[in-house]
Hints:
Layout: H1 4-23, H2 29-39, E1 47-49, H3 61-69, E2 73-78, E3 87-90, E4 97-99, E5 105-107, E6 118-121, E7 125-126, E8 132-133, H4 139-148, E9 154-158, E10 179-181, E11 186-188
Parallel strand pairs: 1-2, 1-6, 6-9, 9-10
Antiparallel strand pairs: 2-3, 4-5, 7-8, 10-11
Helix pairs in contact: 2-3
Amino acid sequence: MSSLFERKKKLRKAAALRRQRAAAGGDIGVRLLEQFDRAIAAPTGSVVSGYWPIGDEANVMTLLRALGGRGFEMALPVVPVRDRALTFRRWRLGDAMKAGPFEIAEPSADAPMMAPDLILTPLLAFDRAGRRLGYGGGYYDRTIAELRKAKTVTVVGIAYAAQEYDAIPCGATDVPLDWIVTETDAFYVEQSRP
């Protein structure tokens, strides 16, 4: 069999096409919010990190607006120099944004730094064991591993149901998700993962 890198590269290409087809079905924001609310109870006072959706990523803006309206502190990731963990800055609807290294909108440098308790993460593909296939930079894996050294962090993969695969190849540095929320389901990933 090919190397882990090659298997992931091949799967990324197929998963991107699958996600593109799923996204053509329209905005799933309200359904994501419904599934999130049905399953996940973020503790009062939690800092929630979302993401600014790009391309055909599942759009979490409805969910972020709802959580912000409920009094949660909201943050968005800031992409650092390569091979470093993400940092997080406070974000509120209407805040000034800047383009980051990958042209993804990020909070401005004067927004306060925050340490999230709950992270909503985009992905290309997932499986029921909580394995996530991202874009290959390792940013979320490094970040989650680093944050979990200091505190408990809940990580929620946000996706279209069509992004589910039977098994996602993973390596030693791949960090599993705690929850996965799609437009049709929200499920907890058992801690006894392979």
